[in-house]
């Protein structure tokens, strides 16, 4: 099945008739999401989950709540899209879209054999709960959030979910702080399916790499630049990525007198081909589960990251595969980067050990099996 359908419902029905005869299956998954550009971390996680599910003969599709401007990344993933804003004459606020989400999900439920909904936004927990009531379908609703909860709206709606798949320990703590009574399982995002990176090469001395969006509100490259301006010795920084703050960051590098050591390389389809750096750096104030750290470690590249509330603590083992620095602290970032630049290899694990341990822990098949166990442990309702 590879439907590429869209519809818009300008009304809220009191009953949605069931037009699809249910066929029992051990697990039939739909991922419910919105605002998908095709280039973000959540899209990568969806792709990996879909490819692994297909290899294991588990039905899985994407239900996009909103227009998909880019569908190239979905070339081999079954999907449907509900163009929620179409025909309304204006863009609706998120909470105002709830009736439209309910209608769309009810229609999709009745036209499918799905028994598991993985929702990536709190508002969809409420919408799915009401759609389940309208249709009378037996379906489990699980949250699968990819952002820190303090950056999301409508988090109280998560109480409607039957369970939660937390991608990091930090998100689990945030869910527990909401007094969530349903089961919470920590399932880290995996590496891409059939991922097979080359063996680690000898790192280029003094070379650092940043891979990600140039959005300083989150990524805090200004702190990294300040820290680098205080580093002793020779260093260079390659930046692979683009975003709204590119011009501002160029100016900031000029002001600090380090512009000749920083190469802005733009968005790269394969940023890892730039070099084998001494370390990858990530100085964010917040993340969900930063896969760029995992992708670096899977190539035997140590990492320096700020220990923001969700994500890095699950990935970085201090002094073994990298270092965690205090968020917002230029001094802590400087000291961690200075250590990472030590030409004598300051880490307890070799590059080969870093790669091996990462490939084992974040193997897509292994993670999918763990996720499947968590899902089927939560009954359909």
From TrEMBL:
Glycosyl transferase family domain span: 207-342
The protein's name: Glycosyltransferase
Superkingdom as given in the UniProt entry: Bacteria
One Pfam family from the record: Glyco_transf_4
Location of the Glycosyltransferase subfamily 4-like N-terminal domain: 40-190
Gene Ontology MF term list: glycosyltransferase activity
TM stretches of this protein: none
SUPFAM superfamilies: UDP-Glycosyltransferase/glycogen phosphorylase
Gene3D superfamilies (UniProt xref): Glycogen Phosphorylase B
Organism: Sulfobacillus benefaciens
């Amino acid at each position: 099945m590879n439907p590429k359908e869209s519809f818009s419902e300008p009304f809220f029905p009191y009953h949605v008739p069931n037009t699809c005869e249910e066929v029992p299956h051990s697990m039939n998954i739909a991922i419910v999401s919105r605002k998908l550009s095709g280039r973000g971390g959540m899209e990568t996680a969806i792709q990996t989950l879909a490819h692994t599910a297909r290899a294991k003969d588990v039905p899985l599709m994407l239900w996009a709540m909103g227009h998909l401007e880019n569908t190239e990344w979905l070339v081999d993933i079954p999907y449907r899209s509900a163009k929620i804003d179409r025909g309304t004459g204006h863009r609706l606020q998120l909470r105002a879209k709830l009736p439209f989400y309910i209608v769309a999900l009810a229609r999709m439920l009745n036209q499918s054999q799905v028994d598991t909904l993985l929702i990536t936004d709190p508002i969809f927990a409420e919408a799915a709960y009401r759609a389940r009531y309208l249709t009378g379908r037996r379906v489990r609703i699980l949250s699968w959030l990819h952002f820190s909860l303090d950056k999301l709206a409508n988090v109280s709606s998560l109480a409607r979910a039957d369970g939660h798949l937390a991608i990091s320990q930090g998100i689990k703590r945030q869910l527990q702080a909401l007094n969530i009574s349903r089961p919470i399982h920590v399932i880290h995002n995996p590496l891409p399916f059939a991922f097979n990176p080359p063996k680690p090469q000898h790192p280029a001395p003094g070379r650092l790499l940043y891979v990600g969006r140039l959005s300083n509100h989150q990524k805090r490259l200004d702190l990294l630049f300040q820290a680098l301006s205080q580093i002793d010795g020779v260093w260079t920084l390659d930046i692979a990525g683009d975003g709204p703050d590119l011009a501002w960051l160029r100016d900031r590098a000029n002001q600090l007198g380090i512009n000749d050591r920083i190469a802005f390389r733009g968005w790269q389809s394969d940023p890892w081909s730039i070099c084998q750096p001494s370390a990858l750096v990530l100085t964010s104030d917040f993340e969900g589960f930063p896969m760029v750290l995992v992708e670096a470690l899977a190539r035997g590249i140590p990492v320096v990251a700020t220990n923001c509330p969700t994500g890095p603590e699950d990935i970085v083992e201090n002094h073994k595969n990298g270092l965690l620095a205090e968020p917002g602290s230029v001094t802590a970032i400087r000291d961690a980067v200075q250590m990472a630049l030590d030409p004598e290899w300051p880490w307890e694990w070799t590059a080969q050990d870093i790669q091996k341990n990462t490939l084992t822990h974040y193997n897509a098949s292994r993670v999918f099996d763990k996720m499947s166990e968590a899902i089927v442990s939560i009954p359909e309702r």
